[in-house]
Design goal:
heterodimer, A: 333 residues, alpha+beta, Rossmann fold, OB fold (Dihydrolipoamide Acetyltransferase, E2P), six-stranded mixed β-sheet, 18 strands, B: mainly alpha, MetI-like fold, two-stranded antiparallel sheet, 12 helices, 2 strands, transmembrane (chain B)
Chain lengths: 333, 293
């Protein structure tokens, strides 16, 4: 149980800055998800917390204790890696017991702790197997078990689900969430998948090119994005962006409107567009329309509505409240 | 995934195998057969005629104290060469593995000695340690150490071991480096987070994961020390002083071509053949079981 603080943390590789001053205050027991596209520096940030990368400037504190210079082992953290990073030559039991053995924990306590973790993760039948004899989901659980048995102050997850197939990913996502609730351990979770971010996070951090663009509760971030990047990155299908002038808005540069906030009508409203193609997903339908100057606009509507046929001209309408206006610098106005 | 090609007839596969079979037959089976045949004869002192003696050559060899001493010498020599060349190579590979800048240059420089032929390497080392003109011997002299591998048996053994290991380090280094780099970074990092310091990580993670490479190199290096070090020994010590560096292969040569006892020489070859066969079988049977995966 611990708090985690990042205070103006920066990282440069030679002359290249990859992290431009990140500030985060993580409360005890909070589940924080860092989400962003590839190369935004989110994994680097996590590895800096873990102690696997140096910190160029700023300070990282675990439980208000500066850990910048501390070795990974001294930080009392546990990390779950994307490729699980299990020790291939050790049994599941030994994989989980490794850290405890090094810490010279008494044998019976090791056995007891591993047994508890194995029960929690339904790994009991596999304790004597080698990692290569396990499925992807089971390996993932072993990696989690290895983190749990050490009773760390902070869990770090580095895209732990991205090597699993879609169905397993949904299942493991739920399990991770439940596990974290049950154990109440402060967690930092890195992912590029916004669905994982939305579903897992108590608060999420959207990162863009080494900067934390926005920090907040998932729904807050979704409903009220502070930058153009966040508005475009969070939400699927992505927000439609239009030049402010083209739709009669006098301030700012760009206006973003989420696909579900646009209504299609036959009678004239704001803009006219031609239906390019439709994607009927069952519960909902994505209608892609082309504006006269060529830009594609996506509209999300209920699956019960009749499918507009391709090539018909329709009107796009929305409430003023649905418009998110962004300035030259990409910031929300 | 292994891909297998299935041929319809037997002609094409036979044709494809032919070059390898011909080479093996001419350069391996034929000389081996010759050696076995010759090992049952004793030539007269002038090499004019030979006399069939059956297993007499073998009987004589096994009772010969010089031959038995050569066994011990070979064991010491190949043991040392293997340990030295693999130990140094592993150490250098660990350093190179941690290197980020300039690793290409470092690697290239380390690989160079492998391109030097054993006999040339032998001459190089012989000149460096030459008791009269050798640079190293001269500096050792300044330090008050009287280097003389021509007389001192231990120094002679040390020199041929170093000279034989030197070129071999490159080869072993390459394999160790590849082996180290095949270990996923994240596994090492996971161990670091689990609290393992460098040495513990090496002992519990790196070394076991490296064991297939180590095992392979062990076999290859022992065979190398047995057979391919002839050039080094011939140029540096010629088996001396007092036969202190006469390993089995060198004895095959000196008894056969210097001593003109072709029968005994052939018998020694046959013994070597059997020995290396056994060694390989033993290594694969017993050591492989301890290889982790």
């Amino acid at each position: 149980m611990a708090t985690l603080t990042l205070d103006n943390v920066r990282k440069s590789f030679g002359a290249t800055d990859v992290i431009h001053g990140v500030d985060i205050d993580v409360q005890d027991g909070e589940f924080i998800v860092i989400v962003g596209p590839s190369g935004c520096g989110k994994s680097t940030l996590l590895r800096m917390v873990a102690g696997l990368e140096g910190i160029t400037s700023g300070e990282i504190r675990i439980d208000e204790k500066r850990v910048n210079e501390a070795e990974p082992m001294e930080r009392n953290i546990a990390m779950v890696f994307q490729n699980y990073a299990l020790y291939p030559h050790m049994s599941v039991f030994d994989n989980m017991a490794y850290g405890l053995k090094i810490a010279k924990t008494p044998k019976d306590e090791i056995a007891a702790r591993v047994a508890v973790a194995a029960k929690l993760l339904q790994l009991e039948p596999y304790l004597q197997r080698k990692p290569r004899e396990l499925s992807g989901g089971q390996r993932q659980r072993v990696a989690m078990g290895r983190a749990i048995v050490r009773k760390p102050a902070v869990f770090l997850f580095d895209e732990p689900l991205s090597n699993l197939d879609a169905k397993l990913r949904v299942q493991m996502r739920l399990e991770i969430k439940q596990l974290q609730r049950e154990l109440g351990v402060t967690s930092l979770y890195v992912t590029h998948d916004q669905v994982e971010a939305m579903t897992l996070a108590d608060r999420m951090i959207v990162m863009n090119a080494g900067v934390a663009d926005q920090i907040g509760k998932p729904l807050e971030v979704y409903e009220n994005p502070q930058t153009e990047f966040v508005a475009g990155f969070i939400g699927s299908p992505a927000t439609n962006f239009m030049p402010a002038g083209s739709i009669g808005v006098n301030v700012g540069k760009t206006v973003g409107i989420r696909p579900e906030h646009i209504k299609l009508t036959d009678s004239p409203t704001r803009l006219q567009a031609r239906v390019a193609y439709c994607e009927a997903l069952g519960a909902e339908t994505l209608v892609h329309l082309r504006l006269p100057h060529g830009q594609l606009i996506t509209v999300r509507q209920g699956g019960h509505l009749p499918l507009p046929s391709e090539g018909t001209d329709l009107w796009l309408g929305w409430d003023d409240a649905a418009m998110m206006v962004f300035g030259e610098d990409g910031k929300r106005i | 995934m292994e891909k297998r090609v299935i041929f319809k007839g037997w002609m094409l596969p036979a044709l494809l195998l032919l070059p390898q079979i011909v080479i093996t037959a001419i350069f391996f089976f034929y000389p081996a057969g010759q050696a076995i045949w010759q090992s049952m004869f004793v030539p007269d002192p002038f090499g004019l005629k030979t006399q069939f003696v059956g297993l007499g050559n073998f009987e004589y060899l096994l009772g010969d104290p010089y031959y038995r001493a050569s066994f011990v010498t070979t064991a010491i020599f190949s043991g040392l060469v293997t340990v030295v060349s693999m130990g140094v190579a592993l150490y250098l590979a660990i350093l190179a593995d941690r290197l980020i800048k300039g690793s290409g240059t470092y690697r290239t420089l380390l690989i160079w000695p492998y391109a030097v032929a054993p006999a040339v390497a032998g001459v190089l080392w012989m000149f460096m340690f030459n008791t009269r003109v050798g640079v190293v011997a001269w500096y050792l002299g300044l330090l008050g150490y009287d280097w003389n591998h021509v007389l001192n048996e231990a120094e002679a053994m040390g020199l041929v071991v170093v000279a034989s290991s030197w070129g071999r380090i490159s080869y072993n280094f390459l394999f160790f480096l590849a082996g180290l780099q095949a270990i996923p970074r994240s596994v090492i990092e996971a161990a670091a987070i689990d609290g393992a310091k460098f040495w513990t990580r090496f002992r519990t993670i790196v070394w076991p994961l490296l064991s297939p490479t180590t095992f392979f190199l062990l076999v290859v290096n022992v065979v190398y020390a047995f057979f391919e070090t002839f050039g080094v020994i011939h140029t540096i010590t010629a088996g001396g002083p007092q036969q202190a560096t006469t390993i089995l292969v060198y004895k095959v040569y000196s008894d056969g071509f210097v001593g003109q006892d072709l029968g005994s020489s052939a018998a020694q070859s046959v013994i070597l053949l059997v020995l290396v066969g056994l060694l390989t079988v033993i290594q694969f049977k017993f050591i492989e079981r301890r290889v982790h995966y």
